[in-house]
Write a structure and sequence with these properties.
EC number: 2.7.1.-
Radius of gyration: 23 Å
Helix content: 25-40%
Structural class: alpha/beta
Largest sheet: 7 strands, mixed
GO molecular function: kinase activity
Family: Belongs to the FGGY kinase family.
Protein name: FGGY-family carbohydrate kinase
Domain Carbohydrate kinase FGGY C-terminal: 247-434
Number of strands: 22
């Protein structure tokens, strides 16, 4: 029996941990999903169960290697960022996998910024707002000063994607998609580690950087397959778009966070952009990707519950509401213009639901307010580039009210809802295409639906 050549991709999110097998046409031929109960660290803060994750990688590989219909040619990993695994010389973890939402000590944070020129300076040079433990380099700084004996024992601090890769390759490396993403480790103005990383001796705890498309032999038993170095999930999700489209574009990735990614904007971040929650990601080829973030998916979830309770409807009622252009025009004429709160939360949070005659009216106004805020956020990364296309993926790409209003908010742009299965996992596979796939890069990965704008820009308030 002819075996199907495949690549195995581990896509490790905060909630779901997935394994996919893709054939040479990048179609999913097998998948497995797992969820683990969180554990706690020594301070009682919730964190990932690292041992369960490690065992799951090996169990999953044992399972797929037993499937005689597949020939596994390569393995790669994509995982969430800002998470470090501190290992000894044998690769054994020395600590729990600390949660990036773990509160950061104020006094220590103040000491750091006072020592290295102030929060604004660090934010500018490292292309990231001040985010506490989400700046993963700050986690290492904390260990050095709070647990110096532990700091001495650390052989390497590996970001989670690279730790997972190490489990199969036996090699410890760093990659730019993890190091370059809101870590405070990388100086974007010098294209090198930041001065503090060397002065604090942290650089010695970071493994050598290799290219994101590098492939190594496996130490895990198998048949001569290669192992990728692993990628930060947000950077991996961008790869299918960069391969499929050569005209400049912005990818608006929507979910709990709505992130506008512009890989064609290489201008330095300004203080105003940093204050508005802009940052830079790093593309797997080593170039910067300017991004802006909104916690919009979370706001949508909360406000939909509020609307549903007020009108006595199901929280999922919005899924069946069609876009009503006339209702939008009416709402613009009779409700106050959008006044976003601090640039982070839409005006709808402060609106009285008694002002609306129906669930449909309230929901249209919610999306109008959210799109007004999204326009402001996305425009931050459009400046200084010649982008004419916006691709929207994730949850809001399936929301026709949101998509029609977004097209109206950007009448000078071509706005598309983009659809593809498992963009993060496909991106991790495409990054090492050369190592396992004998076919040409596919040109049909992404389905697009065009939304023409139907409301003039000067009507969008």
């Amino acid at each position: 029996m002819m075996k199907t050549p495949v690549i195995a991709i581990f896509d490790v999110g905060k909630t779901n941990k997935k394994l996919f097998l893709f054939n040479e046409q990048y179609k999913i031929v097998f998948e497995r999903s797992a969820r683990f109960t969180e554990t706690v660290d020594e301070d009682g803060d919730p964190c990932e169960n690292l041992e369960s994750l490690r065992l799951s990688v090996f169990d999953s590989l044992h399972e797929v290697f037993r499937k005689s219909e597949f020939e596994i040619r390569a393995i790669n990993f994509a995982a969430y960022g800002a998470s470090l695994v501190y290992v000894d010389g044998d690769g054994k973890p020395l600590t729990p996998l600390y949660n990036y939402l773990k509160p950061y000590p104020e006094a220590l944070q103040q000491k750091f910024y006072e020592t290295y020129g102030g929060a604004d300076t660090i934010a500018y040079t490292t292309a990231s707002p001040v985010l506490g433990s989400l700046n993963s380099g700050m986690q290492l700084y904390r260990i050095k000063y709070e647990k110096p004996a532990l700091f001495e024992r650390i052989h390497y601090a590996l970001h989670l994607p690279q730790y997972l890769s190490f489990l199969v390759s036996g090699r410890m490396y760093s990659d730019m998609t993890s190091i370059g993403c809101h870590t405070h480790l990388w100086d974007f103005t010098k294209n090198d580690y930041h001065e503090w990383v060397r002065r604090e001796g942290v650089v010695g705890k970071l493994a050598a950087i290799v290219a994101g498309d590098e492939v190594f032999p496996a130490s895990f038993p198998g048949n001569g397959y290669g192992v990728g170095v692993g990628l930060h999930d947000s950077s991996a999700a961008l790869i299918p778009y960069l391969i499929s489209f050569h005209e400049p574009f912005v990818l608006l990735s929507t979910g709990t966070w709505c992130i506008s990614l512009n890989p064609f904007n290489h201008t330095p971040l300004t203080k105003a952009e940093l204050d508005a929650d802009c940052l830079c990601y790093m593309h797997y080829k080593g170039t910067s990707v300017k991004a802006s973030r909104l916690f919009a998916g979370y706001e949508h979830e909360q406000q939909v519950k509020r609307i549903a309770e007020h009108f006595g409807e199901s929280s999922h009622r919005y899924c069946t509401i069609p876009y009503d252009r006339n209702m939008v025009a009416s709402l613009r004429s009779k409700t106050a213009p959008s006044r976003a709160i601090g640039g982070k939360v839409s005006a709808f949070v402060q609106r009285s639901l008694s002002d609306f005659a129906s669930y449909e009216e309230a929901y249209h106004r919610l999306i109008m307010d959210m799109v007004d805020l999204q326009r402001t956020s996305t425009e931050l990364v459009l400046k200084g580039s010649h982008v004419k296309r916006i691709f929207v993926d994730g949850g809001f790409s399936k929301n026709t009210i949101y998509m029609n209003l977004l097209a109206a908010a950007f009448p000078e742009m071509e706005v598309f809802a983009a659809s593809m299965a498992q963009a993060t996992a496909v991106g991790a596979a495409l990054a090492i295409h050369h190592a396992w796939n004998r076919r040409a890069m596919p040109n049909d990965l992404i389905e697009l639906r065009f939304y023409a704008h139907t409301i003039e820009r000067d009507q969008v308030k």
